[in-house]
Amino acid sequence: MNTPQVIIITGTSSGIGFVLAEYFGKKGHKVYGLSRKYTESSYFTSIPTDVTDNSAIQNAIAEVLKTETRIDVLINNAGMGMVGAVEDSAKEDILKLFNLNLVGAVQMMSAVLPKMRENKSGKIINISSIGSEMGLPFRGFYSASKSALDKVTEAMRYEVYPWNIDVCSLHLGDIKTNIAENRVRTKVSEPYKNVFEKVYSLMNAHVGEGTEPLEVAAYIEALLSKNKWKAHYYFGKFGQKIGVPLKWILPQGTYENLMKKYNKLD
């Protein structure tokens, strides 16, 4: 990435998105940050955009293309968490989650692809989760929303290949951000209360002990320097990343027992 790139990043008002936008802006790239509220920064251009609103997305991309002749990179970072038992989850909360984590990301990709196709180049990173590879207790719908995005990513790799456009999922472990403040937390019914509170406390402790966002930025910078991508990349602490290959090789019952221990369910 020696040549300055035009980079669009969603969810830049805080957390990983803000750190990424400032990181790449400081490196000399032209960065546009899309989030629901305007974000003050000397290093990137903030365009207030609700990525669940396709009209707002189209307007934001049109704004970028007033001054840019290309879009080199899209980082689909905007997303939200959701915690609670599957049984207790309301339809409205499930739809809200999927509308942002899946539909919003798809709408963003659809908006930038015409310009990438015109230039016969482009890279798209969909920020996923290590938790998309397994059904996490009390985060079933979050896991499902990110897993759905992974499958869409895999399909798109075939579809946009003829135009030298590359797409990948970047599965993150726990990153030290304010994600806990923005999660949808469903009402927890009586049968689940005790075990949920134990798992929820552990969940927040893992975030507090997570990897620094700047390390994610450096990893993505190295990823963008690669000529060809794999479909999936995993970034996080060893104890979380190891859960993915273990799921592939262990019998289901053995893996579930390990997950129960990790989440202090037994």
Describe this structure in words.
The protein has about 270 residues and is of the alpha/beta class. The protein has one domain (about 5-260): NAD(P)-binding Rossmann-like Domain (Rossmann fold, 3-Layer(aba) Sandwich). It has helices spanning about 15-25, 55-65, 90-120, 140-160, 180, 195-210, 215-225, 240, 245-250, 250-260; strands at about 5-10, 30-35, 45-50, 75, 80-85, 120-130, 165-170, 185, 230-235. The strands form two sheets. A seven-stranded parallel sheet has the order 3-2-1-4-6-7-9, with helices on both faces. Strands 5-8 form a two-stranded parallel ribbon. It is globular. The mean pLDDT is about 95. Keywords: Oxidoreductase. It comes from Chryseobacterium daecheongense.
Overview in brief:
The chain has 266 residues and is α/β, with parallel strands linked by helices. Helices cover 48% and strands 16% of the residues. It has 10 helices and 9 strands.
Structural category is: alpha/beta
CATH topology: Rossmann fold
How many E-type strands? 9
CA(first)-CA(last) distance: 48 Å
CATH class: Alpha Beta
Pfam families: adh_short (PF00106)
GO molecular function, one term: oxidoreductase activity
Protein name: SDR family oxidoreductase
Keywords: Oxidoreductase
What distinguishing features does this structure have?
single chain, 266 residues, alpha/beta, Rossmann fold, 7-stranded parallel β-sheet, two-stranded parallel ribbon, 10 helices, 9 strands, 16% strand, SDR_oxidoreductase
Per-chain topology:
Elements: E1 6-10, H1 15-26, E2 30-35, E3 45-48, H2 54-64, E4 73-76, E5 82-83, H3 91-119, E6 122-129, H4 140-160, E7 165-172, H5 179-182, E8 184-185, H6 193-208, H7 213-224, E9 232-235, H8 238-241, H9 243-249, H10 252-262
Parallel strand pairs: 1-2, 1-4, 2-3, 4-6, 5-8, 6-7, 7-9
Helix pairs in contact: 1-7, 2-3, 3-4
